[in-house]
Amino acid sequence: MTPIRIGNGYDIHRIESGDGLILGNLKIPFDKKFIAHSDGDVLIHAIIDAIFGALCDGDIGSHFPDTDPQYKGADSADLLRQAVSIMHERGYQFGNLDANIICQQPKLRPHIDNIRRRLSVLLSADICDISIKAKTKEHCDAVGTGEAVEVFVSVLLVRDN
Ligand code: MG
Fold it and tell me: How far is the CA of 125 from the centre of ligand 1 (A)?
């Protein structure tokens, strides 16, 4: 197996009236919430997909099927912990990640460092190895009209010695 492995992850969730958006296991104050089988944490879902992608080991749906009732209302942080433990079992450590959250509203900049801090705990990683960027979609398509939020993530994994 290659000593350094790259993975990319993508996810999108629609939003509806509610009491906040869960992003990176933090609740961002807003008058909407994600429509989802789980807590809808689109950022963590994309990170999990990127980790499984780097391991060439399926995706979030193959490991945690949304047809399985045990994942209904699941805390995505628990799924991330399981993905990280699979990564360790396979002999890899987290290297770094770089994410783009595409979100028309609310403004995410004030929350970025808190999200990075929370992810650093969940990934047992240094905050300096976690980059989160937020962009709008310039009012284009469903994300740009505020109907959905999407995330793109790249992760690097490094093989244990
Ligand atoms: Mg998802």
Answer: 23
> DSSP letters of the chain?
--SEEEEEEEEEEEEEESS-EEETTEEEP-SEEE--SS---HHHHHHHHHHHHHTT---HHHHS-TTSGGGTT--HHHHHHHHHHHHHHTTEEEEEEEEEEE-SSS--GGGHHHHHHHHHHHTT--GGGEEEEEE--TT-HHHHTTSEEEEEEEEEEEE--
Domain ranges of the chain: 4-159
Centre of ligand 1 to C-alpha 159, Å, is 27
* Per-residue model confidence as pLDDT tens digits over 120-153: 999 999 999 999 999 999 999 999 999 999 999 9
Q: What is the pLDDT of residue 33?
A: 96
Mind listing the pLDDT tens digit for each residue in 75-109?
999 999 999 999 999 999 999 999 999 999 999 99
Q: What fold does the segment set 4-159 form as a domain?
A: 60s Ribosomal Protein L30; Chain: A; (3.30.1330)
Residue 5 CA to ligand 1 centre (angstroms)? 23
